[in-house]
């Protein structure tokens, strides 16, 4: 379980450009469930994920992962427990390395190793099995550099890399937003299969209301760093969410 307690975060503090994103924000994310976070541009979704993942420091507050306060842990240390897939298919993978090297790196997360001893021959069968499940033929391209893969193939690889060590938490930051609709559906299906298989506690940011409802257990809508909707996904409709967005937009324009 993830608990965020009394989170405060501002950017450009004490300047004319100061933005207060979170002012005493609290949230609990249930174990083994997928929670979708939606909300209009700039409401603080990515900032929240960056704070949880450790790439942005919080000003005040606590982040507890399975009861342990991780708010002071460096990003590399957190990444042993937290997997992440980004919007940009080039992040989360090393494009100039091969598929095999990328998978080996992900497998070594949290361990000390030398590049010369990166690839363990006895692990290759395991990687081939993981790739076969994707059904994209990537198991025949182990020595292909990742920069030669399509965006969708990279996101699939990124997903495998983020989940192969069964992290305590998975952060999906609009991970299908840069893909065409067909590939996006394939990645969402793969995501669902992996989450069901490993029961990983997941936070998924999405601007796609349909996906957010279909693939999550719970929907949270943020607005200016505040939770304005928090419901089981089965009790929310796409029309309802679009209506709330419209009302917010009218408030902003008025
Ligand atoms: N490193 C930063 N320095 C200064 N301002 C930042 C920084 N990161 C985010 N912000 C600002 O904080 C606000 C929230 O940004 P954030 O990226 O969390 O929004 P978001 O809800 O993820 O938006 P989107 O849906 O467009 O991705 C925005 O006004 C953004 O410009």
Summarize the SSE layout with pairings.
Layout: E1 2-11, E2 19-29, E3 34-38, H1 45-53, E4 60-65, E5 68-69, H2 75-78, E6 82-85, H3 99-107, H4 124-134, H5 151-163, E7 169-173, H6 181-198, E8 202-205, H7 209-215, E9 218-223, E10 226-232, H8 238-253
Parallel strand pairs: 3-8, 3-9, 6-7, 7-8
Antiparallel strand pairs: 1-2, 1-4, 4-5, 9-10
Helix pairs in contact: 3-5, 5-6
The chain binds adenosine-5'-triphosphate (ATP).
Structure in words:
The structure is a single chain. The protein is of the alpha/beta class. The protein has one domain (1-250): Rossmann fold, CATH 3.40.50. It contains 8 helices and 10 strands. The protein has helices at residues 45-53, 75-78, 99-107, 124-134, 151-163, 181-198, 209-215, 238-253, and strands at 2-11, 19-29, 34-38, 60-65, 68-69, 82-85, 169-173, 202-205, 218-223, 226-232. Helix 3 (99-107) packs parallel to helix 5 (151-163). It is globular, with a radius of gyration of 19 Å. Adenosine-5'-triphosphate (ATP) binds at residues 11-12, 19, 21, 39, 41-47. This is Putative ABC transport system ATP-binding protein. GO terms for molecular function: ATP binding; ATP hydrolysis activity; transmembrane transporter activity. Keywords: ATP-binding, Nucleotide-binding. InterPro entries: AAA+_ATPase, ABC_transporter-like_ATP-bd, ABC_transporter-like_CS, ABC_transpr_LolD-like, P-loop_NTPase.
